[in-house]
Write a structure and sequence with these properties.
The protein has 8 helices and 11 strands. By secondary structure, the chain is an alpha/beta fold.
Length: 248
């Protein structure tokens, strides 16, 4: 959950007070000082240094540090005598935002072969996509963005569609995206339960970080599960061992 502060009144005096700050370099750390009812430079520095301390780790939305930061602001608002106007008599409004990352314990079993997340594959899906724990058929679809030899929607519906990477972008990308062939290709891809692409022999460090690290960009949690496919990236070794037809 993300919290937004909803005090009944707001104060807009920080910019004027900060303008009075001395031009000398500010310290990296500041011992807190007793605050006063008046808005002063010392008061603002005490509050800002506490709120922006390194221990708050940037206060990523939804993180424990963000919750700690909003609790601190709420306590300051209470001291100032501002009445809460949030949910259930609090200073907060809970907003259903979230992030989604790949579970490092995820596995895919194909026959007797078990593939492990982070070693053999990576996966991503729109926020709100439920965990896939069922058995799915696998179908090889050739090369990505091939609008000539592509399969039909009915052939891939509800299956794992495996694609080789495209050799390169189309000569005229705008014309390609506007073409009927690309629209049919998109409809075919969206009919699949999972779209899997075949990558390099090893997963790159950047791809691993992106898959397992929560994004700083939070999204609104949907009321219902997304209808589009999830996405997999197999290593070339995993694809050759488990999807033999991908070598043809």
């Amino acid at each position: 959950m993300i919290r937004t502060l909803l005090p009944a009144g707001l104060l807009f005096a920080s910019s004027a007070a900060l303008a009075q700050t001395s031009a000398k370099p500010l310290p990296l750390k500041l011992d807190p000082q007793k605050t006063t009812p008046a808005i002063t430079t010392a008061d603002l520095m005490t509050r800002i240094y506490r709120f922006a301390d390194d221990s708050m780790r940037g206060r990523m939305a939804g993180s424990p540090e963000a919750m700690k930061g909003t609790e601190y602001i709420a306590s300051e608002l209470k001291q100032l005598g501002l009445q809460p106007a949030g949910d259930k008599g609090t200073y907060f409004q809970d907003v259903p935002f979230g992030v989604q990352t790949l579970d490092s314990a995820s596995t895919i079993q194909i026959g007797e072969t078990v593939l492990k997340a982070g070693a053999d594959f990576l996966s991503s899906a729109p926020l709100g996509t439920p965990v896939i724990s069922s058995t799915l058929d696998v179908i090889y679809g050739g090369t990505a963005i091939d609008t000539v030899g592509m399969l039909t929607e009915d052939q891939v519906r509800g299956k794992v569609l495996v694609l080789r990477p495209a050799a390169g972008p189309p000569a005229d990308i705008q014309a390609f995206l506007a073409s009927d062939g690309y629209k049919r290709y998109q409809a075919m891809v969206n009919a699949a339960a999972i779209v899997a692409t075949i990558g390099a022999q090893q997963l790159s460090p950047a791809a691993l970080r992106m898959a397992f690290t929560p994004s700083t960009m939070v999204q609104l949690v949907p009321d219902s599960a997304p209808s589009g496919p999830a996405f997999l990236q197999f290593t070339a070794t995993a694809a050759d061992a488990t999807v033999p037809s991908s070598r043809s």
